[in-house]
Automatic annotation (TrEMBL):
Keywords: Membrane, Transmembrane, Transmembrane helix. The chain crosses the membrane at residues 12-37, 82-102, 109-129, 135-153, 192-216, 228-252, 291-312, 324-347, 353-373, 380-398, 410-432, 439-456, 839-859. InterPro entries: Uncharacterised_YfhO. The keyword Transmembrane helix applies. PANTHER family: INTEGRAL MEMBRANE PROTEIN, INTEGRAL MEMBRANE PROTEIN-RELATED. Pfam families: YfhO. This is Copper ABC transporter permease. The lineage of its organism: Bacteria, Bacillati, Bacillota, Bacilli, Lactobacillales. It comes from Enterococcus ureilyticus.
Length: 878
């Protein structure tokens, strides 16, 4: 076996090297032209890569260094199923490479991993082509380069978690070929398994496509291939079952916490039009990866030529054309028909980055192009040349008949370059057919043209990302890192029991999982929806299904409840009970003397606390009074007075107020004054009347020489204007920017009575249980004066198990959000242990299915072994 591998590499290393490194260096050169390289000031991070993937990869680095469990993280919001997050964002084989980087240098890790994944896609397709097509050796490379650099991959190159799929797709299809033609299921099993483990989301799409492909290929030779239905079914099911070690916990988690299924409200997909398929096959066409985009299907003009030739030449059976053409029909129909489009996305409409399955169209083009190239001969009577001329005519027709309002993002230069390359390919084909150049010269020429074309298109895709999203500056990520990390590490050294921390000037919404502290904010498709929903009811903004939750702009009560012991801030947070204790760079560390521990005792009727709808201050009051056994009034309302405004026109209507700008793109400034009583923490309440119209609108609160900027639709409504221990007339200014108008319920100033707050906090702290959280466990002791409930701020999840004095007790969800358990009178040792729901069944399936596959392979190989032994005996007799 080892000798075979060595021989294979020796014979094929030039082609393998080219198929990997041509796409690799195309990306390197174009990134370099954009100012992106290891250590560059501009990073490879764009769109979600900055806020999500960089931080998630940093957290994976923390996990590899033993700083957190693989099963649970306390550092993603209040706490999260980390195995599920891995399966969605971090399952790729290249992810562990982050161990060689410091978290401050994660942008360089993402850069390297992106390049490796693009190169690996080229190598994987070369391997597929090498074992599939009977064409010249450099022809395999000629097909692998455009596949690796197809528009979908490069236009979505910042979505690093999707790139693994492009490596496994050709291996899955090759595995199907080997199973059908050679009765060898191993490659299919391994490819499916690695695909599903790497990213089950893209794995779902490839799984559906590969099943359809198997059906189509089986029908090309039903008599022979019908015997492969059972082996394919067994192999696929065993691979899927083995992948459940990661997929099952993720699916169960998403079922409990994920997005709801999208409703079909229209038949035709938005933004798509008649000429989309033609227009998106031109060189360098990038519209957007935000809303309103059409599918990215370009994979190169030469593959397109040979794909068309596949359907025109008489050398291919008509039945094959109809069967594989039906796959194109299904994909194209899916681009235009909403129910089919939703099906490919698991019946959930994507949030930007639309038509996420369109790479399957590109793959099918290259796959059939290879078969077309096999039939290409010098004496094909100009059919291939004719198909090339036909493509030029179709592109010209589309360009000439498009309306002035359609495809305005496609410059005339895209058509010109496309036509030019088609003519160059046509010239090469004609010269070959006229026997002016031999095949090996033609292949080299075509490879050079293909690589140049891929370079031009990839350059347009990456520049499109730059204009659409912008590649973030490295300094935004790396510059604050040492100071923030220094302060975070200080808090870790000074605390044995659990606590939480939040940064008022965060780098991104997912800082906590990067720096290794527990906070509130999180932006992730993997989240605890129920805890976020309850926190939203208590004033932390987390609208919809909890995809986002944000810490800023809530009250001191909630700081205390969730155990925020520290704030990091560039300026004084102006909060009662917060005192500065350290400083690093431009950041200071403030400690909260009123933070509650992770758990606290409460009476059994705590479950009956009412939760008013759309009234978070009443919800906070009811919860705190129930926990403290008091009847305090914490909040009072005051009417502020506008004393100055700039670039603002004010319109009032039935309790709502709208602030409109007079001059465009200039901030709308309003200055208020209000009389604040002694011992009061004051807030300006700004509650939007329409969140959807404020996606890009910000509000900057300026008071007492400090400023704090917030995104209006994504943070809470209580903008802090400071604590005052004496009666004070406070003047403050809010600057609105980003939209032409902002509308709110009539703004009020909310005053928190800090004396009442202190009395309640003291009562709850007296019943606190200091728990130590590490890995997937939280342990501690509690002393109950009577039979009570231990309520924690651990997000409720079915994976939690609880033990009191070593005996298992039932875990009760509080408001479907937090973990709570019953405790009897006396002192007890408490232990909470987490294991993701579905993990143990997944482990069992992993072992059973891999073992089952080994047994299945040996069983199916027995007849072959018996035949080999029989032949040996016959030869000996002779």
């Amino acid at each position: 076996m080892k000798k075979k591998i060595q021989t294979f590499i020796k014979e094929n290393w030039p082609y393998m090297t080219a198929s990997f490194f041509i796409p690799f260096f195309v990306m390197v050169i174009i990134y370099l032209s954009l100012g992106i390289y290891p250590g560059s000031s501009r990073s490879v991070m764009a769109s979600d890569s900055f806020s999500q993937f960089s931080n998630f990869h940093a957290s994976f680095n923390n996990m590899l260094h033993g700083k957190q469990s693989i099963f649970y993280t306390w550092n993603a919001s209040l706490g999260l199923n980390y195995l599920s997050l891995i399966s969605y964002y971090l399952g790729g084989l290249f992810t562990p490479l982050v161990i060689f980087f410091k978290n401050q240098n994660i942008p360089d890790a993402l850069y390297l991993i992106t390049l490796l994944k693009i190169g690996s896609a080229g190598l994987a397709f070369w391997f597929f082509a090498k074992n599939t097509y009977k064409i010249p050796r450099w022809g395999h490379v000629m097909l692998s380069v455009p596949y690796a650099l197809m528009s979908f991959a490069t236009a979505h190159s910042e979505i690093i978690m999707w790139l693994d799929a492009f490596t496994y797709l050709p291996l899955v299809i090759l595995g199907i070929h080997r199973l059908m033609d050679e009765r060898k299921p191993t490659l299919l099993f391994v490819s499916y398994l690695l695909l599903f483990i790497s990213n089950f989301y893209m794995g779902f799409m490839i799984g559906i496509f590969s099943f359809l492909y198997f059906i189509a290929r089986m029908l090309t030779n039903w008599k022979s291939y019908k015997k492969r239905i059972l082996p394919y079914g067994i192999t696929s099911l065993l691979a899927g079952g083995a992948s459940m070690i990661l997929v099952l916990p993720a699916v169960l988690d998403l079922r409990a916490n994920g997005e709801t299924l999208s409703q079909v409200t229209q038949f035709k997909t938005e933004a798509t039009a008649f000429w989309d398929i033609v227009m998106k096959n031109m060189i360098g066409v990038y519209d957007t990866t935000k809303y309103g985009s059409i599918p990215f299907i370009y994979v190169g003009l030469l593959p397109l030529i040979f794909c068309v030739f596949y359907f025109i030449t008489k050398e291919i059976p008509r039945k094959n054309k109809l069967l594989f053409g039906s796959l194109f029909i299904i994909l194209i129909a899916s681009f235009y028909i909403t129910p089919l489009n939703l099906f490919w996305h698991g019946m959930h409409a994507p949030n930007m980055f639309l038509f996420r399955y369109s790479f399957l169209f590109s793959f099918l083009v290259v796959l059939l192009a290879g078969y077309g190239f096999e039939k290409f001969k010098t004496d094909d009577l100009g059919v291939l040349a004719g198909s090339t001329i036909m493509l030029i005519a179709i592109f010209a027709l589309a360009e000439g008949t498009k309306s002035t309002t359609s495809y305005d993002y496609i410059p005339i230069s895209a058509f010109v370059i496309t036509a030019l390359f088609l003519l160059l390919y046509l010239a090469g084909i004609v010269f070959y057919q006229l026997k002016k150049i031999p095949m090996h010269y033609l292949i080299v020429l075509l490879l050079l043209l293909v690589s140049t074309e891929a370079f031009i298109n990839t350059n347009s895709m990456l520049k499109g990302i730059l204009e659409d999203w912008n590649y973030a500056s490295r300094s935004l990520y790396s510059e604050p890192y040492p100071s923030i990390k220094q302060l975070v590490d200080k808090t870790k050294k000074e605390n044995d029991s659990f606590y939480r921390l939040e940064n008022l000037n965060p780098v991104s919404s997912n800082d906590s999982i990067n720096y290794g502290y527990s906070g509130v904010s999180l932006f992730s498709s993997i989240r605890n929806r129920h805890s976020s929903a309850y926190l939203n009811d208590l004033g932390f903004r987390s609208r919809g299904t909890g995809l986002n939750i944000r810490y800023p702009n809530n009250t001191l009560l909630m700081d205390s409840l969730v155990g925020i012991k520290y704030n990091i801030s560039e300026s004084d947070p102006l909060k009662f009970g917060f005192f500065p204790i350290d400083k690093a760079g431009k950041f200071s560390l403030y400690e909260n003397s009123n933070a509650l521990p992770l758990g606290f005792l409460a009476d059994n009727d705590i479950y009956k606390v009412k939760q008013p709808t759309n009234d978070n201050l009443t919800s906070q009051t009811a919860l705190f009074n129930a926990l403290s056994n008091q009847k305090q009034t914490y909040f009072k309302f005051y009417q502020p007075t506008i004393i100055n405004k700039n670039n603002v026109k004010i319109e009032q209507n039935a309790g709502n107020v709208t602030y409109k700008e007079v001059q465009n793109n200039i901030a709308k400034d309003i200055t208020w004054t209000v009389d604040v009583p002694a011992y009061t923490q004051a807030y300006l309440s700004l509650f939007p009347t329409d969140f959807g119209q404020l996606e890009s609108s910000t509000a900057t609160m300026s008071v007492n020489g400090t400023s704090q900027k917030s995104q209006i639709n994504i943070t809470g409504q209580y903008y802090n204007i400071g604590y005052y221990d004496k009666p004070t007339t406070v003047t403050f200014t809010v600057s609105f920017y980003g939209t032409t108008a902002v509308s709110f319920m009539e703004p009020k100033v909310v005053g928190l009575d800090t004396k009442a707050f202190e009395r309640s906090i003291q009562a709850i702290q007296d019943k606190g249980a200091d728990l130590t959280a590490k890995g997937r466990k939280a342990v501690g002791t509690v002393n109950a004066e009577k039979d009570q409930v231990l309520l924690t701020t651990i997000p409720y999840d079915k994976g939690w198990k609880a033990y009191v004095d070593g005996k298992k007790v039932p875990v009760e969800p509080f408001k479907k959000a937090f973990v709570s358990i019953p405790v009897t009178q006396g002192e007890h040792t408490i232990e909470f242990v987490y294991l993701p729901e579905g993990f143990m069944p997944g482990v069992v399936l992993f072992i059973v299915c891999i073992g089952g596959f080994v047994v299945y392979v040996r069983f199916t190989n027995k007849p072959k072994l018996a035949l080999v032994k029989s032949n040996k005996r016959k030869r000996r007799k002779r």
